[in-house]
What does this fold into?
Amino acid sequence: MNRKKIQDPTEWYRRFFLDFVAGLADDESSRPTWAAWGKHLSKDEDWTGITRRWLIHATRNAGLVPVAKGLPHPSGFQEFLGIDLVGFADADPGAPAVLAVEHENQTHLAGRVLHRTWKLVSIKAEYRVLVTYFGKGAGREAKTFQDVLFNSVFPATTRDLGHLLVIAGEWGAQPEPNWDRVISYKLVLGEP
It folds into this structure.
């Protein structure tokens, strides 16, 4: 996916999301840990690593240079401004951040998703993605996908600071060949 050829942000987010979930569903290493959504995800390093790997993959496929903890920018810096994953326009140290991604799997802790959302809307980036979880094992703020949106996403996006793609997996979901049965998503559109 070449971001320069896609002008509509909705289409860009759709392609990024489909690239992410397609990789996740096809990843042989994710099959044994797909059931990890039935465990306490904050302790499941395998699931976190697999999710991270496919977010990085989708970032590269978008034509961006991914930077994260353990994955430095070609100029040497990593984990830009404490954001989990940032996609830069190119390898130049002065290149603008185009994509910011936060992955929060400790939804049982009050305020964690809201904090991650605030971080995302505070960074100057053309695209923003939040990956989180909801369901029985999550905290009271995240019992349903709507809870995630109304308790954590919408309060942080009340000012029009840009677009945000929210991807949320159901905590405790059984492995499914069809990702859409266990992963919900919503594009919150705002003015950049």
About this structure: Residues 48 and 75 are 26 Å apart (CA to CA).
